[in-house]
Amino acid sequence: MKNKKKQMKKNLKKNLEKNPKIEEQNKKRSGNKKESLEIKKLAEKDDKGNKFQTFTDKVKFSKSPIENSNTLNKKSNPNNKNKYVNKIIFKNKNKITNKTLINEDKQVIDKYELEVDDVNVIVKIELSEIGKTYNLLLPQVGFGTSALLEQLRKELISTTTIGAVEIAELKLINKIKKEFSQKASELLSEKVPDISQDSKKFLTGMLLQDMLGLGQIEFLIADPYLEELVIANSKEPVRVYHKKYGWLQTNVMIKREEDILNYSNIIARRVGRQVNILSPLLDAHMVTGDRANAVLYPISTKGNTITIRKFSRDPWTIVDLIINNTVSIDIVTLLWLAVEFEMNILISGGTASGKTVFLNSLMPFIPPNQRVISIEDTRELMLPEFLYWCPLATRTANPEGKGEVSMLDLLVNSLRMRPDRIVLGEMRRQKEAEVLFEAMHTGHSVYATVHADTASETISRLTHPPLSVPPSMLKIVNLNVVMFRDRRKGSRRVFQVAEFIAGNDKVSPNILFRFSPERDKIIGHNESLVFLEELGRHTAMSRFEIEKDMQYKKSILQWLIKNKLRSFEQLGRVMNLYYTNPDELSRIIKKNDVSKIL
Ligand SMILES: Nc1ncnc2c1ncn2[C@@H]1O[C@H](COP(=O)(O)OP(=O)(O)OP(=O)(O)O)[C@@H](O)[C@H]1O
Ligand SMILES: [Mg+2]
Description:
The structure is a single chain. By secondary structure, this protein is an alpha/beta fold. Among the domains are: about 75-135 and about 215-310, 2-Layer Sandwich (Beta-Lactamase), CATH 3.30.450; about 320-540, Rossmann fold (3-Layer(aba) Sandwich). It has helices at about 1-20, 20-30, 85-90, 145-160, 170-190, 195-210, 215-220, 255-270, 320-325, 330-340, 355-360, 405-415, 430-440, 455-465, 530-540, 545-560, 570-580, 580-590, and strands at about 35-45, 50-60, 95-100, 110-115, 120-130, 130-135, 225-230, 240, 245-250, 280-285, 290-295, 305-310, 345-350, 370-375, 390-395, 420-425, 445-450, 480-485, 490-500, 505-515, 520-525. The protein has a ten-stranded mixed β-sheet with strand order 3-4-5-6-9-8-7-12-11-10. Strands 15-14-16-17-13-18-19-20-21 form a nine-stranded mixed β-sheet, with helices on both faces. Strand 4 (about 110-115) and strand 5 (about 120-130) form a beta hairpin. It is globular.
């Protein structure tokens, strides 16, 4: 027995020496005392009762000071405490605890730490011969620990019913996770009585992700900088779309096709669907808000594929968009006024020009106590909590061609739900356009996106097939915001803000603001001919009153920008106060009492 123990120790040592990641960490350790590799020995018995040695190798990562403040912009700083983040992501902590720009190592462009279910990992963005890559550094688990985990996994499967549960609610998942953690923790204490609290947490976290989640993919899902992840097949590494670095190849590989199939099944089961050889396509909206799409082999000819488009945990807000020059404060003031007084707004733009982001950023301007119904193919919109919001999403038909719920179905149905405001993801077909314009004409306030590059093109798109809206109906659109993506710089800008001057058979745009590419600035263009007049009619406000109101709104926006009150929640709080307790908001602004909003 002693010999066996010795041999295992030797093997482990060899393993550690051979492992380049461990080597690198060991090297760093000698240079940086704060970074330490803690290897804990745990005595354990295997299935047959033979005693063997297991090791928990827990890497403690450096908490070194941030040497160079990272350039990731404020908006996407996941340190911002966001209620939505905590709500949507795992119930446990899920945060970036340290973010460092490594200067001494030219290969590493960026580095940050994530903590998911008590497991810490490091993400390194590196520059290699294949371009920028995304490297997930997991704490190393020795072979002994792996054996222990495997054994626990088997025991947990037999003692819990989790595998068979259909988990459709985030609350339920969190409850199950809690129960599972408790069970795993008890089992660990039983097996390894002298286990430290830290090791126990870590091992439980690893088990949790393996058994209830998608293994290493969970870390990628938890990384707030990632927007999209693609598992192409078992032979290619997982690729991710990073907010700052674009598409990156990762060092994560799902080694077996069965595992990808298994992940697809986990996702499908949680939304009450199936994915198998007979129905090899899955489009599922996960409880976290993320959208998963799976295509199985041989339909996806290179192997089973999963694409996950992540739901933004920290959405862009209007303050972010003013700060990053997407829009000017004057335009926002005008749009705020339009949203407050129930005017109709269309957002146009090309693919990925930022239409949905912009539409979403206007939502907090909706006054409370108004029933808002949103209709989308994919749930992307996120409204502040104070709003009375009912989000609807379409559904595709099942393999037998049944169960489809189309955008038109939802649109028609929404009108029976007594909405005050209707938000439509994208207007694509004639019937949808018909119902939407009908809704505007019957006094609902509508916000929708259209695929068009300019205000003139928006008019042309609307009045020609397939939308074919009669020109005279376009009067009802109060403002058209056109978004633009600079493909060279990757930036998004408001390209035009226009009102429509509609005759009986001809509509022309009156451009109120336009983007000047030479100055990278949005400038005023024409005076309003119809919008302000219409607004006056709706609100009985004189031009002077409108001007005064706009000045006040502008001062609030300036105060928000000055105090960096940018998060979705903070904005929600300010807007709620603006509508429900304006005196209190005035007082807060006058006294600069930012703490009331934080
Ligand atoms: N103003 C902005 N500044 C920087 N990035 C932005 C901005 N608006 C959008 N983005 C980024 O661009 C991506 C696409 O944005 P969005 O989904 O709003 O575009 P879209 O026009 O609605 O696209 P689609 O044509 O697919 O509907 C998002 O992932 C977002 O992070
Ligand atoms: Mg969109």
